[in-house]
């Protein structure tokens, strides 16, 4: 399962986050922020500060587009208005329905729900499987990094 980390709210002045290990930055409410280990999290108050770190914007949350105030998520309005709830739901899609595997509609590979590669799949392309059998029946192969059993 993906774990939630203690992410500062926009009240703290932080609008963007990144991992020390990767060259990508995210909006503070992006589901990928919830997958970054707390020790690796770094924060930025402005878009300019995030860009100055020589990182690119996340393809899922599109922080540069989001800087215009345009909401790109397909989540219900009440969830969009609550960043903490949005982060919890998007970081833990398996929480309620007990999905064990995920894949992109555009890929022939499936992953354990906890695999770091799941965080790179755009929200609109995510599909979930409740069992290994269901994932295999979709015609996809298992991710080599997940060490599927």
Please explain how this structure is put together.
This protein has 149 residues and is an alpha/beta fold. 22% of the residues lie in helices and 19% in strands. It is built from six helices and eight strands. It has helices at residues 47-52, 63-66, 77-80, 83-91, 94-97, 132-137, and strands spanning 16-19, 24-27, 41-44, 56-57, 101-104, 109-112, 126-129, 141-142. A four-stranded mixed β-sheet has the order 3-1-2-4. A four-stranded mixed β-sheet has the order 7-5-6-8.
Largest beta-sheet characterization:
4 strands, mixed
Rounded radius of gyration (Å): 16 Å
Order of helical and strand elements: EEEHEHHHHEEEHE
Percent of sequence in beta strands: 15-25%
Question: What separation lies between the terminal Cα atoms?
Answer: 16 Å
Low-confidence stretches: 1-5, 68-76, 93-97
Mean pLDDT over the residues: 74
Please report the number of helical segments: 6
Number of strands: 8
Oligomer: single chain
Shape: elongated
Give me the side-by-side strand order of the main sheet: 3-1-2-4
- What share of the residues lie within helices? 10-25%
